[in-house]
Fold:
Amino acid sequence: MSGERHSLTRWWDGKAEARAKFHAWWEGYEFQAREAAVETQAPPPVIAAPRPRVKPTGKVIVREAWPPERVKVAQMVWGDGFSFPGGVDYTVTIAQALKLPRDGRGLDIGSGLGGGTRAMACAYGAIVDGFDLSPDLAHEGQGLSIAASLGDRAPIDFLDIDRDMFKHKHYDAALIRNTLSLMSDKAVLLKRVAASLKPGGRMLVVEFCLAREDAHGAALDAYRLGEATAPRLATLPVLASRLKEAGLAVLGVEDHTESFMRTVLTGWAKIDALVKRGELDAKEGAALMGEAELWQRRVGALQSGDLRVARILATAAQ
Structure:
């Protein structure tokens, strides 16, 4: 094992309290810190936020940094080409509701690294345009599409909220994931996407939402404060009403939390194996710990009942 990997092992072994917190969350019991325990090891290496590798013309509202080590770790946890829970099978399954026709045209907003965009393009024989609010993820995602010879069938681009990027009545279906909760003006994006749908085209929204307007528990507060980009959360009924205001007919509204949680926990079941195999260097180990803590807060808020995952299916007028 290289010296760098030895360094990671020492760092990971020294993070006793952090690892204990993670395993307590995983096993479902409350973590109680030992008052006498004092960590004396040096802090993990700091990962500097990179400059955006694309030059968006509009305002960047996502403040998350995606350096190479985080991109690598995310894919090890969630699957090749994925920066968020929901691999190929999950994406293709939820996209069935869109009824995307072969040789049709799809829109994937919140594409991240584009794994889902490419999966839909291949599964349904369609052209699927991916867009993401993160310039870093859009850049990496387009590179992955080109490497997979899907640069034309599954292109990934930065989502510029300052302008309408979608052709009128151009798409047969649209999927929006993990995007509306990052935007204060959800109505503008929804109206643009609705206008881009062909008559009868379908839209599926999968999004974090509040369980109720007055939700304010400690776990929800920890989730909100721990996000790099402050979430702008609405309740599920409010999200559904926004789709109606955009001129769409809502076909179905459901709480998708339990299914989403299973997907998250399946991904994180890999964490011990990743560490034990010693495949990560020190920066990648720090990125893995950062992802673990991020998802610990998110899952804690979901388990508290204050944060939910909405799934809304709608259609454009015929």
Notes: The two ends are 62 Å apart (CA to CA). Residues 18 and 219 are 17 Å apart (CA to CA). The chain has a mean pLDDT of 85.
